[in-house]
Amino acid sequence: MTENSTKTREQAESAFSRTQTQFMARNRTISEIDDVAAEREAKTLRLRELRLEKEANMPVKVPVRRKPAKR
């Protein structure tokens, strides 16, 4: 009886360990994805601010209308 319960316990511990490892790996992957997304968002915001600043400092060019050529 003891041998059977020991084997069952080892199987249960092994299954739990596999499940726990998968859970930890999933959480680590999600964390890495979140970090990459946050970095991308920060870079996008920084580049947007630089572009808007550059556009604000550029003089506005008014298009010149040309007369159509006579035929």
Structure description:
The protein has 71 residues and is mainly α. Helix content is 79%, strand content 0%. The protein contains 1 helix and no strands. The chain has one helix at residues 2-57. The model has no long low-confidence stretch (mean pLDDT 89).
Set out the fold topology.
Blueprint: H1 2-57
The description of the largest β-sheet is:
none
Q: What shape does the CA trace take?
A: rod-shaped
Count of alpha and pi helical runs: 1
Share of residues in helices: over 70%
In angstroms, what separates the terminal alpha carbons? 108 Å
Low-confidence runs (pLDDT<50, min 5 residues)? none
Overall SS class:
mainly alpha
Keywords:
mainly alpha; single chain; 0% strand; 71 residues
Please summarize what this structure is.
By secondary structure, the protein is mainly α. The chain has one helix and no strands.
